[in-house]
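Give me structure tokens for this 193-residue protein.
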Amino acid sequence: MSKVKELESQLERAQQQLRLFQKISRLMVKELSLKQVLAAINTLVLEFMHGDSCLLYLLDKGDLLLCSSNNPSPGTLGNLRLRMDEGLTGWVARERRLIAISKEAFLDPRFKTFAELPEDQYEAFLSAPIIARNKVVGVINVQHRKQHIFTGEEMETLTTVGEQVGVLLTQAKLESKTSGEEVATLVGALASN
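Here you go.
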């Protein structure tokens, strides 16, 4: 590839990344339910990452609760829980660190398999903590059916999306306090809607 073509490709990818962040930012200011916003974020992240699965877990009563999925298995949303010491997702939350595994993620000793999640057989796994006010409030996972070497740009993008979702949750928490709702009720409503 010529240097000009390579630079054009990098510029196009940077523009796509900027559009992703802009779209997520615009979702955050619309009058949509939290569930609708998280579902839209799932779609946008998958589109940008060319992934096969995007799962969002939110912290609820000390556990990570599956609250959003691009292709939810029956009965998993609002019911599937991970402790902070379980699986790669729990590790990401506990360690407050991104993890990227390009192949055979399910063979990682930290991996926890759930029969009800077909994504558990996917090869590649990218996960970032969702951070709000310097605290982990959830985890976002992107998975690929086939091997995928994650770029630095993809890792940075997912980290930034995790931060944006954290801001969104902080905003929702403030709004729930104003309206007298409990945050647990908010998370529960996410799962049941």
